[in-house]
Amino acid sequence: DSAESIDTDIITLSRFILESQRASAKNATGEFSLLLNSLQFAFKFISQTIRRAELVNLIGLAGASNATGDQQKKLDVLGDEIFVNAMRASGNVRVLVSEEQEELIVFPHNAAAYAVCCDPIDGSSNIDAGVSVGTIVSLFRLTSDSRGSASDVLRGGREMVAACYAMYGASTHLMLTTGSGVNGFTLDTNLGEFILTYPDLRMPIEHPIYSVNEGNSVYWDDPIQDFFQRLKKPPADENSKPYSSRYIGSMVADVHRTLLYGGLFAYPCDRKNKHGKLRLLYEAFPMAFLVEQAGGKAVNDRGERILDLTPEHIHDKSSIWLGSRADVDKYLKHIGSAN
Ligand code: AHM
Ligand code: MG
């Protein structure tokens, strides 16, 4: 009967964090669990706000521009406020970088243990069409000499202690890494809890999908144009079928598909975006960390590992190629990189 089919011992995100904390000596202080609680609250709140937006007629321009000059929508403002308030209230965050704010935010919590970087609503140009958008987050542990300044986050990607994104799609998903694999959760809106639905997610080794804004191809350098040409028309001796093209234009959704199905997602530099479009601290770094932890790879145009890079400024950009190991290797081989 139906009572028997109900799993009465589900693993919620809070339970998952507490259990993994007990299992490992690191993060044993409980600070990380507290921060995770504030993060999941922000994700639930933003999720609800986006889902209600159409009904309460929030869609429209707020009349301001963000740090990189994009048009900013009311939901971007709300998402940013929700996120910043949740991080301030956690008491565990000293330094915060938000895509929506030019300046670094410093909270006067001297005992706080973390620095957080986020894109509160990534892919927001898609919101009016009901396409999936998300929140992307990277976390650094403060060092003992932290002064509550930009140097708390202008660090190499390998120093991140955790990264996650929430995707507000047909369901709300949360994919998280703390450096030992990737675990994925789905929001049960009745319980108000994220439930573990993708334990220890491993991405496919390869998959013939490429995901890139091909409208930029006239601005790409020749080697990049040649590479995608090759995916579409594999040389006869390679005996492989052409790749399929999938591009949502919302990084969280494109990376989410890449994690689950495999393939390659790229935003290369071009003549218009000389340093790429995506931001290192809260787009490239956290996604690279997640993809690597799921068994994939993430590099820039030159084939350098994303996690080996260090930003000079909080809103620095980077080119990015991420996805299934064999597909990224194909690109690396094409440009003659040793990585
Ligand atoms: P945003 O942070 O202003 O939303 O911009 C980032 C988004 C990514 O989600 C997506 O991968 C990319 O911009 C798409 O850019 P384009 O429209 O140039 O293809
Ligand atoms: Mg963004």
Automatic annotation (TrEMBL):
Q: Name one GO molecular function term.
A: fructose 1,6-bisphosphate 1-phosphatase activity
Question: Per the database record, which ranges form the Fructose-1-6-bisphosphatase class I N-terminal domain?
Answer: 11-198
**What EC number(s) would the UniProt record show?**
3.1.3.11
Alphabetic keyword roster: Carbohydrate metabolism, Hydrolase, Magnesium, Metal-binding
- Name of this chain's protein: Fructose-1,6-bisphosphatase
Assembly and partners? Homotetramer.
Q: Say which species the protein is native to.
A: Lachancea thermotolerans (strain ATCC 56472 / CBS 6340 / NRRL Y-8284) (Yeast)
Per the record, GO CC terms? cytosol
In the record, the note on similarity to other proteins reads: Belongs to the FBPase class 1 family.
